[in-house]
Each structure stands twice: as C-alpha cells, then as structure tokens.
C-alpha cells in the first residue's frame, strides 16, 4: 500500500464501526425486549386484584414463563447500559480530531483548501448532529421510563412503595409537581388508575414515542456528517451503513445478545427476577430504588432537608442541561483541551457509580433495614405458598387476610406479645404460645406448672403443684384426654398451612369424623375426674376443694380459646389477670387469630 493511501486512511473509522456495533446492539436488545414483553402481555392482568397473581402465575405455572420474565427484566437493564455506551461513543467521535494528523502533504493539497479538522472561525455548527444527540438522549430517557414503569407493574411491596416515594418527590416539585402526580396517579392515592396508566405507558405510549425518535435518528444518520466532529473522509463509510442501522446479520453484537440470553436464563435458575409480597398500603415497607436511581437517592439522603429540592431536582436538571449541550461545548473547545472535556464526561459516569455504591453499602450495614427485609421475605414466601394453591377472586390481600399464619400472626404480635412469648420474642408474664396445647406442652405443664414457660410468671395467688407424683402411667392418659378435648371443633386448615411451616401430626388436622373424647377415652374419664375435677371445673361441676382453678370444659378447643380471649374471667375466675378483648377485633380477624393460636398444638 502506498504511503499516500496510508496517510489518507480514515483514522476515526474504528470509532465509527464500534459506534455502529453499539447501535445495532441497542436495536437487538430493543427487539428482544419487545418480543418477551408481548409474551408476558398474553398473561399479565393490570388490575389491583390480579396484577401480582398474574405475575406469580407467569413465574410458577406458565411454561418457560419465569425464563421469559427474567430475560425481559435483564434486557431492560442491559438496554439502559447499551444506550449509555452508544451515547459515550457518539461523544468520543464528536470530540476526536485525529483526522487533522492524516492531512495530505502541503504540496498535494488543493490551493485554498484548509486542513481537515480545522474550521474557520465562526463556521456554523452542524445543528443536525446536535438534534441527533437530543434524539438519542430522548430515546435514552424513554427507555428509562419504560424500565421504571415496567418495574412497577408486579404491584408487590417493592414496586408499590417505590412508586409512592417517587410520587411524593414529584408532588414536591414546584409548579409542575402536582401535574406530574395527577398524570401518573390520577388520584390522591395510588390505586387502579395509577396501575392502568403505568401499563399503558409501558406498552403503548413510551414505545411509540421511542419509535418516532428512532425514525428521526435513522433519518439524520442516513445523511453525511450526521454527527458533530465526523470528518469528511467518513462520509462514504457513513453512507454505507448508519450508526443505528444496517449491518451484517451475524456481527459481534449478535454474539453478545446470544451470550446475554444464555446468561439471563442461567441467572433465572439461581433466583431470577424478584417478586415480593403483594402490595399492601396498610403495611409500611423500606422501599429502595433500582440501581439506576440509586445515585439520586443517595444525593437526596446527603442533602439537608432545606436543600432537598436542590439535590433532587436542581442539580440533576443542571447536569441534564450540560449533557444536552455537551456536543456543542465539545465542538467549540480547542483540540488540545478536548481530552479534559472527555475526562469531565467520564466523571459523569464515575460520580453516579460512587453514589450508588455508597447507597448499597449503607443498606448492607443497616440492621433495622435488614430485619424489615427479612420480615417481608417471610410474608413473600408465605404468599407464594398460598398462591400455589390458587388466589381467591378478591386477590392476594384477601388470601393473606384469611391466612392464620400471616394475618393471625400479625394480630398476635400486635396485641399479645406484651404478655406472651413466641419464638423468643415478647414479654413473659403469662404462658408461652410456642407449642400451646400440644401433647408435649400439656405433659410438661402437668409435671412443672410453675415453670416460667407456663404459669411461673403469671403471679397467681395459688400455684398448681406438680403432678409428677401421679406417674407416667397416669399422666399420659390424662394428657391424651385433655388433648382430645381440644380436637372436638378443630377447624379444617389448608394443606399449605398444615405442611409448611407445620410438619408433624398433620393428619389430625384433616380428620373428617368428629372426635368425642368421652367416648374415645371412656376408660380415662374416671381417672381424670378423680385427679383433676377436685380443683378444676368441668361441665359445671367440680372444684370441690374451692381452689378456683381454670375451667377445663372443652379445654384447648376453638370454643375454649374464644372464651379465653373474649371473657377470660369465665375460665380463670378470681385467678384471672388477663384483660378481655371483646371490642378489639372484628369477627374475621378474631377467627384467624384463634386459628393461629390453635395451630400451635401442632409443633
């Protein structure tokens, strides 16, 4: 090859080809996102009652549904990164002036022609390139909008409370804030209208706007000198294939996409896209934004309250304005100072990355946050266990409200842990709830009723003595009889409640025949009356010694527990120290609370 041809070889061509590859990768990812989105749209239902359930159905029941959702989720993240890479390459081309070094010898330059890359003072900037840059920024913003709106569609705790935080920030924005909130939420509170608008924006409005900007970018890049800083010797290369468009069908970006799909599927096998507990406005949740919003979240956290608007809106707005005009600024800078402009551009990447890392690090060290997340993880696991059997028409919140292991446990923790301990939590002023009324609990209580687990902290006037003197031969039949008394009105529980987290003796919960303890334990009744009824009442008789011990009629049954909660003095008489809870819960909540306590007999 001649030296002339070597000197005139386009030095910027490699940058142009890399930019084209990045553009083609964006189009590949956009197509993959659209394809997987259409598959998900066949099953997803944008309603408060069915949004979470339909996403769970996609993950748990639909063939390859979990894989499709995982690829769709990861593709959105990858598309954001690919758009950022493309924009960076665009700026690199705009700021490159190496073509000046490739100028032909002076003797070969036509008379009056200025060296390539050197422009007359006051030469007009190619506004078409700036418009293209704005179009690219608009496409990036729309992709970000599609990503955010899509992440809110599962309507779980994470998505609901993240949207709540975002809407509160938008409402605080001067002038346009209330308008933004009204457009997105449609009402003062987030509900069905907000979910419908997010769905419409995700699948219709934002993709249509992105398609229009893509068409504009295609038109601009199909003409010579589309991008600022592109030298004349690149025109022919630009005409052969645009930065966003035409390409060989099996380029490097094709392999990248295939590797990405395989990686997404492997990621799915190890967990995949998350689905938290169903959104519940009545339960607070420590919402955290997605990775691409973390820098703004951390910046807001660092700012004092008086400067919150400055941190959240003013600073990002100024940075956005600088970014929008960055090619124009870069074009006007002398060639020797452009490297500093590119360093400034790199800072635009490094600073947000540092803020995001600091935010993640703070969360990892926040113990209160980790406890709250662990509690929500339990609720999420329970919701999925119940949903595996089917979600009622009322939706997942109705399903959880009927579940004693969810709603019943919450009610117990709210009202009962001030006196009873459960799984090591609470105050010990009365018997522990763990294993309450189980065979082991009854037997241990008969042997040592004054133990702290039982009535040792109850501060009774007359403590029950140990019954170990009766011997195992008598205690075991009495234990079984007392246990059977509680089985008379045993509610029928769902298999999920029985099998997880309750593992043992589950067959007893599924008994279809009523239990008649006095018939089944006819030979034990005389022993029970002889050893227990002298101090305890039973069927309006007993307590011949005037001890005022608790009434053992239907001991441990649902009816007995109901009386224990609503009118404990009826059972314990003068020994009672427990307050009555007659006006505390509605009937449904009372039932699930009693069922939760009743289930403790199956440890």
Short description:
Helix content is 58%, strand content 1%. With 603 residues, it is mostly helical.
Core attributes:
603 residues, mainly alpha, Cytochrome Bc1 Complex, Chain C, two-stranded antiparallel ribbon, 2 strands, 1% strand, disordered N terminus
Walk me through this protein's architecture.
The protein has 603 residues and is mostly helical. The chain folds into two domains: 2-106 and 115-225 and 234-289, Cytochrome Bc1 Complex, Chain C; 402-601, no CATH class. The protein has 26 helices and two strands. Strand 1 and strand 2 (541-542) form a beta hairpin. The termini are far apart.
In DSSP terms (H or I, runs of 4 or more residues), the helix count works out at: 26
* CATH overall fold name of the largest domain: Cytochrome Bc1 Complex, Chain C
What Rg do the Cα atoms give?
A: 35 Å
Q: How many extended strands?
A: 2
The main sheet comes to: 2 strands, antiparallel
**N→C terminal distance:** 85 Å
Q: Unreliable runs, pLDDT <50, ≥5 residues?
A: 1-12, 97-107, 111-125, 225-250, 495-513
Task: Please estimate the helix content.
Answer: 55-70%
Which helices and strands, and how do they pair?
Elements (H helix, E strand, L loop, with lengths): L2 H5 L5 H29 L9 H10 L4 H30 L32 H26 L4 H16 L4 H9 L6 H30 L13 H6 L11 H18 L24 H9 L5 H17 L1 H7 L5 H28 L1 H21 L8 H6 L2 H12 L23 H9 L24 H14 L9 H5 L6 H4 L7 H4 L4 H7 L5 E2 L2 E2 L15 H9 L1 H5 L14 H12 L5
Antiparallel strand pairs: 1-2
